[in-house]
Amino acid sequence: MTAQAVAQSLVSGLLMGLIYALVAAGLALVFGLMNVVNFAHGEFLMTAMYAAFGLFVAVSLDPLLAAPFVAAAMFIFGSVVYLGVVRFAMSASANAGMVQIFATFGLGVVMRGLAQLLFTPNYRSIPHSWLGGRTMQIAGVYLPAPQLAGACVSLATFGALWLIINRTDFGRALEATREDSGAVALVGIDRKRIFALGWGLGAALVGLAGAVLAIFFYIYPDVGASFSLIAYVTVALGGFGSVFGAFAAGILVGLVEAGSALVLPASLKYVGVYALYLLVVLVRPRGLFGSL
Amino acid sequence: MDDGKEREPRMKLNRREIMTGAAVLAAAPRVARAQGAGEILIGAVFPMTGSTAQTGLDAKNAIETAAAIINDKTDLDLPLARGAGLPGFGGAKVRVIYADHQGDPQKGRAEAERLITQEKAVALIGCYHSAVSATVSQTAERYALPFMCADSSSPSLSRRGLKFFFRASAHDEMFSSAMFDLMDSLRAKGQKIETLALFHEDTIFGADSANVQTKLAGERGYRIACDVKYRANSPSLTTEVQQIKSAAADVLMPSSYTTDGILLVRTMNELGYKPRAIVAQAAGFSEQALYDAVGDLLHGAITRGSFSLDLAQKRPMVARVNDLFKARAGKDLNDNSAREFMALIVLADGVNRAGTTDGEAIRAALTATDIPGDRTIMPWKGVRFDATGQNNGCDPVLLQYDGRKFVTVFPLLAAISEPVWPMNS
Predict the structure, then answer these.
(1) Nearest-neighbour CA in chain A from B269: distance (Å)
(2) In terms of residue numbers, what domain contains A86?
(3) Which of A201, A288, B203, B350 is 20 to 30 Å from B292 at the Cα level?
C-alpha cells in the first residue's frame, strides 16, 4: 500500500467525518437540551434531502444555494414536530422516557411511509450540480468538491453554533434550560418556547446536512438509515448532549472508518467504529466530552 | 395423592390430543388447499419497502402484467395467453397476493409462512434478494409447496437438494460464464485482458457472484488484481474505490444493488478513476435509476442480462408485452422485471397442468414443464427443469449501455452489434 493511498484514505475519512459531525449535530443539540433522543433523525435527514431535490427539480436551484432554504424549512418542521408530537410525549403521565422513544420512532416510520407514498421508493439523485462530479487533486490526493463543500459547511456551522450558544441571549437561554429546565421558568424564560426553538435549530442543522449530501448521495425513503446509526454512535461517543463532542466524535468516526478499511476487509470497516464505541461506553460511559 | 390420581386420566387425554394434533400437523401440508370460488392464489414475496422497494414495486407490475395476460383473452403466443384464466381449473383466475420482506431473510420466512398458512397460497414466487429466496424456499419446502425463484441468481440456491425449488432463469455461474466467454472472444481478437477487479456486496448475492468469478478466472487464465467485498448501503465507498483504483485492473466486475452502484460510480469519478471496462453482474446495473443518476459516466459499461428490449427485432411479442408492462409501470421491462414476468407465466403453466392445488401435484407438473423459447419473451432455448429445479436452456445475454439504451452485444446469435472495448472509447 502506497503512502498516497493512506493519505487519500485519511483525507477522505476526515471529509466524511466532518459530514458525519454535521449530521449528528442536531441530534446532540436536542438531546442535550431536553434529554430526548430523536429516533426520527434519519427521516429528518431524508426529508431535507428530498427538499433539496425538490428545489432542484422545481426551480433548478443548486443544492448548495438551496441549503439555507432547506434549513429554514426544516427549522419550521422541527418546531412543528416539537409542538405537535414531542410536547405531548414529554407530558405523558407514566413512563415518559419510553413514550418519547416510541413517539419519535413512530414518527420516523410514518415519515418513511409517507415518503414512499408521495415520492415512490425510486432512487433519485441530482444529476448535475455545480459541485457534483468535480474534484481537485493535490499531490496525488483527490479532494472531491461535494465532500469538500460539505466539510466547509460543517466547519462553518459548528463555528456559528459556538457563537450562538456562547454569545447570544437565545444561546444562554438554551444553556440555562439545558442545565436546569425547572429553574429557568423562575427567571422568566419560557421553557416550551426554548424547546420548540431548540427542535427547530436541530432540524435546521440536519437540513444543512441533507442539502449537502443531496449533491453527491442518492435519495430514497430509507436513505436516513445509512447515516442515522452513525449519527447515534457519534452522539454517544462524543458525550450525550455535547454538540462539540459530536463535532470531535464525527471526525474520529470518519478517520477510524477509513483507517479500519485500510487494514481490515472493507466489509468489516465499521468494526473499528463500533469497537471504539463499545470501548468508550465501557470505560467512559458519559462519552468523550460528556458532562453528565 | 388423590389429586394426582384425579389428574392422571386428564394427562392421558392430553397426550392423545397432542398425538392427534401432531398427526394432523404432519398431514396438513398434503391437504389440498381450499380456494376462493374461481381463484387460484399465488403468494409473491418481494421487497415492497426498504432500500430495494422500487424493485419490488416493478416486480409487482411485471407479475400483474403476467396475471392479466393469463386471466384475459389475448393473441400473444405465451402459455395460457390465448384463453381466459386457467383451463385446467375451468377458467379460474390467477390472483397474486404480495408480501413485503424488506430485504430481510427472517421477515421473508415469516411472510412466506403467513402466505401459506393464512392466505392459503398454492405456490410462492420471489424474492429478488438471494438471501431471502434462500429462507422463503426453505419454508415452501417445509410445507411441500413449489417456490418459483423469479430473479435471484445465486447458484447455491438450486444446489441445496430442495424438491420444490424451481428457477426458470439463469444463475450467476451461467451469467458469469457468459461474461468470461465475451472476454475470451475479445482476447482472441487481440484485446489485452489479463487482470480483473472484483467489487461485490457482502450478502449471499455478492459473495456467490465473486466465488464463481474467482473460480472462472482461475480456469480461464485471468488474474484477480483485487477482490473488494464491501458493506452494502455504506455512506461512503472511498477507501474501497481507492483499492480498486490502485489495482488498475483491465476489467472492473461489480456485483452491486442500485444504491451502492450509484455511489460506486460517483466515487470512482471523484477519485479520478476511469476503468478500462466494466462488466457488471446486473442487479443495480440493470436499473434505470442508476443510469439516470450516473449514466453519463457509464458509456460502454457492459452488464449481463436475461432480457433485452432489442430482442423485439426478432420476437415482435416482446414489444407488445413491454407496452403492456409500460402502461402499468411507466418504464420499460428490464432484466429483473422480465424474469419476474416469465416466472409467473411458467408457474401458472405448471399449476394449470396439475389441475389441482395439491403442492406435490404442482411440483410434478412443473418438473414436466416444456416451453419452447419462442413462447417466452426471453432469448432462451426453452424452459425445462433439471433434477435441481434449474432451467438450463436460459442463455444469458450481455448488454452494453450506449449512453441512451442497452444494446445486445453477446452472444453472437442474439447480438445486434459488436461490443465497444475498452469503454468510453
Answers:
(1) 6
(2) 3-283
(3) B203
